[in-house]
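Bug #77: duplicate submission created two jobs. Keeping one. Sequence:
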Amino acid sequence: MKKLAAFIVIVIMTVLRALGAQNYPATGRVVTQQGDAVEFATVVLLQDGQQIAGTATDTEGRFALKVPAGDYTLSIRFIGFEPLEREVRIESPTDLGDLTLSAAATQIDDVVVSLLKKCRSLFCCSGREDSPKRIQKYFDADKKLKKIFYRCMKVCA
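Kept job's structure:
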């Protein structure tokens, strides 16, 4: 009789432990302000600063994470967009819906400055008089590159 009681207690404890550790799916879609899918964005669920689960969005901007019930911080990041953080509660299968990322204001002035320094060494100091003409043909096809090329030429003058 004692063995049967011990067996029942062990079975009940195992079932309760399994129910308590059940993972629930948290799904959603990451989109831009125009409603376009954000492919391969990083999606992470944090609890007390620790990463519990993470994934990347698919080509349609969708993601799915499985976590135990609880309160989490949802963090979504992708280059060129402002990070999105939101508090979420997962108690059952949860659809977080469309999560919108805002475009980040970025500048490339430093890249242009570096390019201008490089232009000086490539075009002005190469020791070949035909260097600008020879290289110009590569830039003529692209208007942005052409504009940079002509800025380089002003630096050389």
